[in-house]
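Example record for the data management plan.
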Amino acid sequence: MGQNLIFGHKKPDTDSVCAAIALALLKNKLGEASEPYILGNINKETDFVLKYFNIEVPKVLDNVKIQIKDLDYDRVKPFNKDLSVHFAYFNMNENKLRTLPIVDEEGRLAGIITMKDIAMSLINTDQRHLRTSYDNIIETLIGKSILKFDDIIDGDIIVASFEEDTLRKSAIINKKSIVIVGDRYDVIRHAIETGARLIIITGDLEVPHNLIDLAEQCRVNIIKTPYQTYYTAKNISLSKYVKDIMKSRDIVTFNEDDYLNDCKEDIEQSKHSKFPIISKDKKYQGLLSRNHLINPQRKRVILVDHNEMNQSAEGLDEAEILEVIDHHKIGDIRTSIPIIFRNVPVGSSNTIIYNMYRENNIEIKRDVAGLMLSGIISDTLLLKSPTTTERDRTAVDELLKIVGLNLNNYALEMFKAGTSLEGYTSEEILFQDFKKFNLEYKDVGISQVFTMDIKQIMDRKDEFIRLIDDMTADRNYFMIIMAVTDIVNEGSYIFYTSSKERIIKGIFEEEEAFQGIYVDKCVSRKKQIVPRVINALRMLR
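Corresponding structural encoding:
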């Protein structure tokens, strides 16, 4: 079973990031292997919080699509390209394999062989010439080393069936000869004196010491085998390198990080039945077959601080959603089986997770308490947002006892760090906390920007209006709203798609609307802006 991937929405804020980290730690304590992730770059406020409590930024998760590495493919042990065909055949037969992956010394895929390749090599290749290692010959013939001078044996195979005189006269044996012979010691002597590359003594016969001494002087390799001459001659070709018969070109391979949907067509149209899987550095990983495409293992995910498809990771429909922990309205997440769906009307996802720690009697460490505290005060604007509940206040009080800091001073530092807009483009500011909603069958984008210096926005007012209008048209939104929330005065300045001035009046119940209109006590996108937009859109129907 793989680990759980826990993440918040596409525009990571302090509540979602801290919730993912805190929940992952809780799940690990409960014996569920889990890892927190983010779906994009964190903002300045979240960066401040993580650094303050010395917590690493979670890894960025691009998507949760099914990848080749998620499949339960065959972990067939690879075979070294310099071993023998005989050993490969034995390995395949023993393990009931039809395809064997071949690798080099570094574990990189070099090729593949099948039983058919082995059979065809015995029919189509030159059986007289042999180039392989001395050790491969030993392995193939269950031989015993008598003398070894060369690691590589390269020569022509000769079965010494003639008389010694005939062999001398015809000069059949030479320095490139691999001589297979029984107890014909005169022939053995002739082969040694000629300087044959290798002499193979069959029948497990003993070699006289004087011949061994002579062979040592002439540096002639000698092996003896228990096999008879016929069997030795028939099987010695199987000692050749497996790399000499393997298929090394036009192999259909897949990278373990490839996405399944991108590979399906190639697999279905290929005439092959097995496909090697390799890593980024070309290391062999396993073999894939068509059967592995049936019921693939999906990534196991837990969603925090959101429950809408367009706010979540790409490929969510390919993942197995285990759980949702959220405090927003119920969106369009669908599952094929029942799951844990914990949706609580509180000001922060971290309030829910704090209560999960308490329910499971898990001790909360200071750094984790600091993260959850930061998430709550961020999402509730230091408990001033209308979304704030008694549960949030209780959680803050209890977490403060663990963290031991001055809440107002810490919150002021955090908000200052998070609301600085210096160095950001207008597009980065608009989209740093932007959410797309499908409200009453219309796509509405709502951005919330927190600031302690509204002048930074007002000085670029025209720039933001042009951007909002362009984004509305380019991305086919019905409307985009940018709420610039003044943390000090507890209200928001509203910028919007220029053509929607009339509906903005209805949303905020104002007699007139203009770009940058101030709405007092409007600080919550979830509880104040979204419900008002829904009501206004219903009035249009």
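Summary line stored alongside the record: The CA atoms of residues 89 and 115 lie 7 Å apart.
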